[in-house]
Design goal:
alpha/beta
């Protein structure tokens, strides 16, 4: 709902819309990442091949922060939903995803189909759809939460915004029911850890370097723990 920033008259309707969200939404989930920090961090990562040659990282995982976030959120959400660890989602549930139709459809489809882990795919439903966020209420609800989360992420200390993994958003209207929503925070250490983890999962023969320092190989899983801090 980027229109909130453009048309201040919309603000008078937001409390009523949020009441609808309170009546129908069990829980929420969000991802926060500083995209400039993401690209700067990835610039310093490279891989060493078995022949000793080095190459820079390439592909969606390091060239597109949206794809990076989606990959990791989907893995996290699918695991927790399948294990019944999310309030309102029963054990073994297979959630479907609805995307704003303006997102990168081709890349999302290709990435989802290319997942090598069939068990991973089985954690999700078959419905992967793209809809217009101007007419689909769930997408508008997600836009509302995301807009306020982003607005406060740049104006509040992160330890105030996220407490024990739970987002604490201060809305300028009265809330009648607290909606818990978990927030995945990708800082520099987690970016390094997750990029290295995904690369080594797909190509275990490689070694991951940050500038001239070795940080992870498939034979040294403890190095990934070090990279994660």
């Amino acid at each position: 709902m980027t229109e909130q920033r453009i048309d201040p008259n919309l603000h008078e309707y937001l409390p009523a819309f949020y009441r609808v969200i309170e009546d129908h939404v069990t829980a929420g989930f969000a991802v926060t990442i500083n995209k400039h920090e993401f690209y700067e961090t990835c610039k310093h990562l490279r891989v060493r091949h078995p022949n000793g040659l080095f190459s820079v990282l390439s592909g969606g995982i390091v060239e597109n922060h949206y794809i990076f976030c989606m990959n990791n959120f989907r893995e996290w959400f699918g695991r927790k939903a399948f294990l019944g660890e999310i309030e309102g989602v029963y054990e073994g549930a297979k959630p479907d995803f609805i995307f704003d139709e303006r997102t990168e459809k081709k890349k999302i489809f290709e990435d989802f189909i290319a997942q090598p882990d069939s068990d991973f795919k089985n954690r999700f439903g078959n419905n992967l759809s793209f809809r217009d966020d101007k007419v689909v209420l769930p997408l508008q609800a997600a836009d509302l939460i995301a807009w306020w989360l982003r607005d406060q992420a740049v104006s509040r200390p992160i330890d105030e915004l996220i407490r024990d993994g739970i987002g604490v958003v201060n809305f300028p209207w009265k809330s009648f029911r607290s909606i818990p929503f978990e927030v995945m925070l990708f800082d520099k250490k987690s970016i390094v850890y997750l990029v290295a983890k995904q690369i080594l999962f797909q190509q275990p023969q490689l070694a991951i370097y940050q500038d001239d320092m070795l940080i992870a190989t498939s034979r040294r899983p403890e190095s990934l723990q070090w990279a994660a801090g």
